[in-house]
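Forum: Protein Structure Q&A
Topic: Joint prediction for protein chains with partners

I've read a bunch of threads here and the consensus seems to be that you should model interacting components together rather than docking separate models afterwards. I'd like to see that in practice. Below is the full input, 796 residues plus whatever partners are listed. Could one of the regulars post the assembled result?
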Amino acid sequence: MNPTSINSTELLPSSSKVTPSGVTNETFIKVINFDFFYGKKQTLFNINFAIPSKHVTSFIGPSGSGKSTLLRNFNRMNELLPGVRHEGDITIEGRSIFDASIEIIALRRRIGMVFQKSNPFPRSIYENVVFPLRIMGCHKRAHLNETVERSLRSVALWDEVKDRLGENALGLSGGQMQRLCIARAIAGQPDILLMDEPCSALDPIATAKIEELIVELKKEFTIIIVTHSMQQASRVSDLTAFFNFGKLIEFDHTNRIFTAPIEKQTEDYITGRFG
Amino acid sequence: MAYSRSHILTPFTEKLDQIHSSIMTIGELARANFKNAICGLFERNDDYCNNAIANDEEIDLLEMQIDREGLYIMSRFQPVASDLRYVISSMKIGANIERIGDQVVSIARRSRKINEHPEVPELHELDKVIKLAMKMFDDALRAYTEENETLALHIKTQDKQLDRLNKELNERLILRMQDDSSKIPIYFNLIFISRCLERIGDHAANIAEDVVFAVSAEDIRHLGS
Amino acid sequence: MMIPHSNPPHHFFSNHEKKTSFLRLWSNQLLTTLCVLFSFFTLVPLFSLLYLLIHKGLPLLHFSVFTKLPPPPGLHGGGFGNAIIGTITMVGIATLLSAPIGILGAIYISEYAPHSSLTATVRFIAKLLTGIPSIICGAFAFALVVLHTGQFSALAGGAALSILMLPTILLTSEQALMGVPSSYRDASYGLGATPFQTIWRIVLPEALPAMMMGMMLAVARAAGETAPVLFTALFSQQWASSIMEPTASLSVLIYNFSALPYHYQVQMAWTASLVLVAMVTGTNILAQLLFRRKFQ
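Posted by a regular:
Agreed with the consensus. Here's the joint model:
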């Protein structure tokens, strides 16, 4: 991998917070005037921004700022909860994900999700990875085997587990389990990978490995990561969005957010002067 | 303990490698300019001098880039321990090399002035000073790449020797001035060049101090002076 | 390196601390002793019951009690093979009737519509049903089955027991399903599984051991009930040839024989009790062994 030289545009203020300057990839996910309600309570207010493909975008902000809620809207996981509704739109490649012609199941198959607590099924390592294929009705042994190896290699887990694919996944270490969950999430070859605080329960070395993985995976996937660790956001992401009280406060190049944010709220939050 | 820039997180390693290679580039440039300026003086060729002056702009830009890279690493990867020292030292070394570049520009300017006059044999009085200053600078760059603490500490002792050589040269040239007042401008410029070389030695010593700090977390500035 | 300004010395264990910790220590030990003592007391009735059963029931326990028909009042010999078969048949019928409804109902209220008002109603009624006296279940089955078919039968007995079992199966199954970590569901839905795939492939396999345990509990309880079968299946001195005729059961046999003035019949009631308890306990142990969770 060639060291990319630091672009001085990353240090210049963006013309708008919707699309940071210097982002060449075309817009992949677009959030348009998006409001979200949980029962009577509004949790997201008029969110507008565009996420480019093959980048890592991190969402930071205090608890209850709406970053996870927005993340769970991209694959409509919020709809599993009672009494939720939204206004506005989210589009992927220009198509609304809320369109009646979009099957929610098909949408979720294009979007992998990794959760805060690693949640492998209490099955073998092998069966965990092939689960997305099994639910799509694929049971061809050769294809399953190939997927297992490819996915586990992508998450740098193959060498560690290749001799015990039949063992229960719950016997792995915390970091390995989370990497297994990432392998499972990418086994169905989605386009987008959503990560909801994927390292919050891991030790620093396991965290570093996952972070390295995220950087590696952005060559293939558009990655959105919600994290409470600003350091993590700064280490892994290309773009950072700061949320507060359900509003998008600032969206820009990560380097700019952590060197010279425009909004005072952002500055106060990342420097620990909040409230 | 040898310092390894390699980390689990590849971009971190890459950015550390990048700042390292930027330091090497700025060091090579400054070294080449230094040689140009000296060539201009000894071969009485203004082209060399002009080259050295023009190329300094690139050194200035590189210094700014090194600072940007250091800031980038600090804001994005929160380096600690040896990494933190490495980044801070690299930024300071970049600044010192830039100052060396400035001294080289002064030397080039003074050389052009000397070249306006007929050649004087006293020019070669500078030989020892130039040799030592150049060696110190080379050693400083080598100490940085090799993380060689011993070499860095050796540079500090050479610095005193350079100061002494400079002082002796100044005294001799001042005596000559009294003998032959027509050559005062030449001697005067030679004294200035010698002073620049002495300053280059100081910066090389600063680089050595930064290397020692990066390698062993030891602050050896202002000791026993 | 010097530690700057340490605080003025203070005693880590002050006298005051010692006194309270002494008191705390004593009250703690007292409570522990009481707990051990009372948990021991709970074992007393259980063991005395077992002792009584074995003491009184063992003398007549021969292989023949499993194969022979009950003796007429006053006569010796015979057994209660038909009652054992009858109990197994009726509990089997009851399980076949109640398990599908209970399990599917539990899946619906726990997985498909956990927040609907129908769910709340079902859950509330199931809880009410657990409190209904078993004799009411018998009366209901009598009205529903016996009056319609015009005879007492194993089917009617099974129906009565199924009403008794249904809320237990529903509620324990729901508990079992709720015990499956929601993170599994998140993972499954997040990967694009349908609700059916999520339930069938992920949730049910996880909940199955606990669901089976709940079912076995219901079975054990139903096997011991007398009142619901008393006037639905009645009793029979003969081997049953179909489920549509009056059928003997262990519980009714115990009830009948223990009321007789003959010593032999009373003793046989004790033996039948021993067999019933052994069957119920055996079922439970079997369930534990079969459905113990394979992974923590």
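DSSP finds eleven helices and no strands in chain C.
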